[in-house]
Amino acid sequence: MSEGRQRVSLTDFISPHLAEEICRDEKARLILVIGGVDTGKTTFVYSLAGSLAGSSSVAVVDLDVGQSHVGPPSTAGWGLFDPDSGEVREEGFVFTGTFSPRGNLLPVLTASAEAVRAGRRMASRVVVDTTGYVSDSSARILKQMKIDLLRPDLIIALSRSGELSHILTPYLRCRNPRILIIPVQWPVREKTMEFRFSYRIERLRKYFAGASLKRVTLNSRYLRFTRYPPFRSPQEPLFLEERLVSLRSRGNRDICLGYVTGVKREGEKLLIDVLLPGERTPSFSHLLVGEARVSRQILLSGES
Fold it and tell me: Is the pTM of this model over 0.85?
């Protein structure tokens, strides 16, 4: 389940008339919320989900891979919104292999599409949270490709000083999606880089709490990578150490994340020591290796 949070009414962000209009719009089945950093996107998403849940089943999809609330960091997670608790019951995630979409557009877009498909299968309305990465040309391409790929019915843009115009202007003459631009006029807490880093590490520690070290043996041909490195060969065993990985099922779905602590090579085989949740190593088809790397000292020692 997502982190506990203080409940905030949707009318703390927008007028009661606009809130009612959004909730009554039956065509708005998929709602994409975008905005820069520290605009209150996640709080807005949960407030909107709470308002929609009065008349519909609601799924929340969390595409903020670095500051995720549904699913561990480096994933696109989804789950059903529980109107009684005001939280999201996590149902699954897709591993992107990264904490930032910058330079990782393809795995982030692929995971986004799969997570939204899962959300649409489980609920009549879906609200999508996104990263605050909106400022440069790469961010513009990412957001526009995400709009084209996901095909939202409604985009709610939490905007400060027109910072989203370079993303949204090409869509203003399109029939779909409908775009609501809402000026950010509410107080928000500015999060420092140190705060964001600490939050990410704490989320990972929580995910791996109670995990145990397993040895996984597999042929190196059964490794996949979310991104190939520019310098070192991914066939070098040391390349894998301190990286997040995902165990993929025979249906090519993420079973769980792992954290690699050591690797040895024996011919074509790799002997990988990996921290995994649960007591047993699940049956899997292959290993998906991410770009994301976390210091063992920071993740496992309790330091930050």
Answer: yes
